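TA notes, week 10

Several of you asked for a full example with nothing omitted. So below is the full record: structure tokens for the whole chain, then the designed sequence directly under it. When grading your own attempts, check the secondary structure regions first.
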């Protein structure tokens, strides 16, 4: 929420200057833990005309977890088989939880590439690893899919409608021992966590602005 609110604060006045017909919506849905009920209900309200106009969805979910601890990162079981390139990059760095994961289906790769190139162009030293699923989101998010762990956030509801969407995340429970436990609180966040969050937000802001401005 901090990242989304900061992005809105920075972008709103700059987007108004563009005098573009494009719209940027900053949305926070409830009951994501109830298998994305909030975003699911929202998507159902959208007409096909509105869905067809959506250029992309940047879904942020847990973006503050960061450390350089060896073997502090795990990955969903299917990663090694279906996403070997991403798996090998994590393994080569001794499974350190020091990267932002950007998850995409095979229709949303352009958003992945743009986010990565924005970080490079802006000189922001944010380590981003791309997890591009070898199928459409609708296929990946079938309940029997081996890749269902890559569907556990609100981007899934847009994939189901064929909308270009990416999930930007620190991978939450796959690196956070306090995930959904009492020890998950602000006191656990150090300087490196806030730096990671600021870098992520800066790249997000520029990526969204570039998409509207072009």
């Amino acid at each position: 929420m901090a990242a989304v609110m900061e992005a809105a604060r920075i972008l709103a006045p700059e987007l108004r200057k563009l005098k573009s017909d494009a719209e940027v919506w900053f949305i926070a849905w409830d009951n994501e833990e109830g298998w994305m009920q909030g975003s699911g209900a929202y998507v159902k309200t959208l007409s096909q005309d509105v869905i067809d106009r959506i250029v992309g969805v940047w879904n942020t979910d847990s973006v503050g977890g960061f450390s350089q601890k060896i073997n502090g990162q795990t990955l969903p079981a299917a990663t090694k088989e279906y996403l070997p390139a991403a798996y090998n990059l994590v393994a080569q760095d001794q499974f350190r939880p020091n990267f932002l994961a950007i998850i995409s289906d095979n229709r949303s790769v352009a958003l992945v590439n743009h986010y990565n190139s924005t970080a490079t162009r802006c000189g922001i030293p944010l380590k981003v690893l791309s997890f591009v699923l070898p199928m459409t989101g609708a296929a990946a998010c079938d309940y029997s899919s081996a890749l269902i762990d890559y569907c556990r956030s609100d981007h899934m509801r847009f994939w189901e409608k064929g909308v270009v969407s990416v999930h930007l995340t620190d991978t939450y429970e796959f690196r956070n021992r306090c995930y959904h436990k009492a020890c998950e609180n602000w006191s656990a966040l150090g300087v490196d966590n806030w730096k990671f969050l600021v870098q992520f937000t800066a790249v997000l802001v520029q990526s969204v602005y570039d998409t509207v401005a072009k």
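The first strand starts at residue 57 and ends at 60. Use that as a sanity check on your answer.
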